[in-house]
Amino acid sequence: MKHSEARTATDVHLEAHLAALGACLARLRWSVGREQMALLGAYARLLLAWNRRVNLIARGDEPVLVSRHIAESLAFLATEDIAHGALVLDMGSGGGLPGIPMKIVRPDLQMVLLDAQRRKVLFLQEAVEALQLPGIQALCARAESLAALAEWRQKCDVVVARAVASLSLLWQWASPLLGGQGMLITLKGGDLASEVRALAASDPVATVRLSAPPACLVDPSKGRAIITVRRGAQT
Fold this sequence. Notes:
alpha/beta, 7-stranded mixed beta sheet
């Protein structure tokens, strides 16, 4: 009985946070329908179920899965530079963040979820199947290994990554996978000026743009920015 009550409390909590997220997306005038919100909810429940045996997110973050992790994943879509039908690679996808929420809200995207840990990739594969998402695949590999393969080198339009490493290192991993007009998008906080300077020192050709994410998706008090990195001058 206690387990049933706990599950009900979790559902109520998720529904409240999903409703708040839906209201945020409506204020942003994003076209997100009920079916897509239901898919976000189904994804959240599946991730929480798997998180009991595979470390997809920190246990302490489970209550903020929607309000922090999923909302911040959608902030990657705030840039208007991601073209319709773009091939997007989620580098170090882990539990599918940001790739799966991005795919749900932007079903036109072709999404690749990349992670080096087999157990996490098994979750990603089950999530893709359970949610019946077309145009998305999960691969078990490191970005460096993938870039060494001719079929992947310079093939992606966009690489997305949460702040799992320094900006310079993220660009080092991502750039071989990107086509000529491709870009890396990440969400980072901290000493961004130092990170941008370090990237400029390691790759003087790269251009960097920082923009503020929507306040209802990313807490403004955290001082984080959406960072877009490209080769050469932007047009």
